[in-house]
Design a protein that fits this description.
The protein is an alpha/beta fold and 262 residues long. The chain folds into 2 domains: 25-111 and 215-252, D-Maltodextrin-Binding Protein, domain 2 (3-Layer(aba) Sandwich); 114-203, Periplasmic binding protein-like II (D-Maltodextrin-Binding Protein, domain 2, 3-Layer(aba) Sandwich). Helix content is 39%, strand content 19%. It contains 10 helices and 13 strands. The chain has helices spanning 2-22, 51-63, 77-82, 97-100, 128-131, 143-152, 165-174, 184-192, 226-241, 244-252, and strands spanning 27-32, 35-36, 40-42, 48-49, 66-71, 88-89, 104-105, 114-119, 135-139, 158-162, 179-183, 200-203, 220-221. The strands form 4 sheets. The chain has a 5-stranded mixed β-sheet, sandwiched between helices. A hairpin with a 5-residue loop joins strand 3 and strand 4. Helix 2 packs across helix 9 (226-241) and helix 2 packs antiparallel against helix 10 (244-252). The relative contact order is 0.18.
């Protein structure tokens, strides 16, 4: 009996590393809303790319996991993750307390602000008093929509949700909206610096309500996928230390979206 137990224990010890390695999948499906340039978008060749996508690909390489990207509407990202249609979210997802109740997040990938865009000379500001009776476009499922619905809508601001950010910009140009609320970098890169953004500008300062904003962006995981999340956190440290993160950052921006931490 003692010999049998010793053999059993030896088999368990030999098998343990193999079991630990088996916890990490060889391939995962990653959901991304590709209407949010320069972070996540479709290029002229029809390929998914952007700062966030390139960072995620670098993380996948470090973790030795094949990553397949799947275009997913922003408001469908968390439901798709929880229903196992995708295995991870990489889509400029702010790590709000509300979302943390549903899913787990990686360490912070980057930080960005939220700002209002209006026609130049409109004198519209990002305040309840200025926006009352005005139509403000937001992308469904974003922190900007959450804020607008809870803070502005009850005070007479008309909040108009859209399936993706490109639709918001389109209706702003067409005059069906008085303003749009979005990520500052996306507003600048994907709209104000493009021909369609001529005659528009940021209005007022960045929004600083810590309940909705001023939180970092992370990768999203199911709460029980601890090993997968830890693998990507480890990979993030590696690309920060070996210069990969900075190289990708400098390709898209002339400032660090990782803030002052690196």
């Amino acid at each position: 009996m003692k010999i049998f137990l010793k053999v059993l224990s030896l088999i368990s010890l030999i098998s343990l590393p193999l079991y630990s390695q088996a916890k990490l999948p060889e391939s995962i499906k990653i959901g991304s809303d590709t209407s949010y340039a320069p972070f996540d978008f479709i290029d002229a060749n029809g390929e998914i790319t952007g700062f966030n996508i390139e960072i995620t690909k670098a993380l996948c390489a470090k973790a030795n996991i094949e990553c397949v990207f799947k275009t997913t509407d922003f408001d469908a990202l968390i439901p798709s993750l929880l229903s196992r249609k995708i295995d991870m979210i990489s889509s400029s997802l702010m790590m709000t307390e509300k979302r943390k109740k549903q899913i787990a997040f990686s360490d912070e990938i980057f930080v960005t602000n939220s700002r209002l865009i209006t026609k130049e000379g409109s004198n519209i500001m990002p305040t309840v008093e200025s926006l009352k009776g005005k139509r403000v476009g937001v992308e469904q499922g974003t922190s900007q929509e959450h804020f607008a619905n809870e803070v502005w809508r009850p005070n007479g601001v008309i909040i108009v949700p859209y399936q993706n950010q490109l639709q918001v910009f389109s209706d702003l140009v067409a005059g069906r909206l008085d303003a749009s609320l979005q990520d500052e970098v996306t507003g600048s890169y994907a709209f104000l610096k493009q021909p369609q953004g001529k005659g528009f500008a940021f209005a007022g300062d960045v929004l600083t309500d810590k309940t909705y904003f001023d939180v970092g962006v992370g990768l999203g995981f199911r709460k029980n996928d601890t090993e997968l999340r830890e693998a990507f956190n480890k990979a993030l440290v590696e690309i920060l230390n070996d210069g990969t993160y900075k190289k990708i950052n400098d390709k898209y921006f002339d400032f660090s979206v990782y803030g002052n931490k690196k």
